[in-house]
Amino acid sequence: MSQVDLDRVVHEPARLGILVALANVKEADFSFLVRTLGMTRGNFAAHAGRLEQEGLVDSEKSFVDGQPRTLYRLTAAGRRRLREYRRDMQAVLAAIPKRP
């Protein structure tokens, strides 16, 4: 099997969880994602920030009833990189012998 270079930004479990969660919805707020993924607020914020830096996720901050609200969306680049990661992982898994 040839070497497959997995996307390290996407491959990190917390970031992969965020991307997969966002791939299944139009948008999601901070609290929903933290609860759904079972992450601490700080850990989620750090990983979401990295995904934003990479252009994979967009966020929009606002106030609702005087409370801060941050919505997250997967970008087109995020969808593309997640598809590429899925393709690469399928290649890795396909290389595993059926009877190791």
Summarize the structure.
This protein is of the alpha+beta class and 100 residues long.
Structure write-up:
By secondary structure, the protein is α+β, with helices and mostly antiparallel strands. It has one domain: Orthogonal Bundle (Arc Repressor Mutant, subunit A), CATH 1.10.10.10. The protein is built from 5 helices and 3 strands, in the order H-H-E-H-H-E-E-H. Strands 1-3-2 form a 3-stranded antiparallel beta sheet. Strand 2 and strand 3 (67-74) form a beta hairpin. The mean pLDDT is 94.
Helical coverage, percent range: 55-70%
CATH class: Mainly Alpha
**Number of strand segments:** 3
Q: What structural category arises from helix and sheet content? A: alpha+beta
Shape: elongated
Tally of domains = 1
Write the layout of secondary structure elements.
Layout: H1 8-11, H2 13-23, E1 28-29, H3 30-37, H4 41-53, E2 57-64, E3 67-74, H5 76-94
Antiparallel strand pairs: 1-3, 2-3
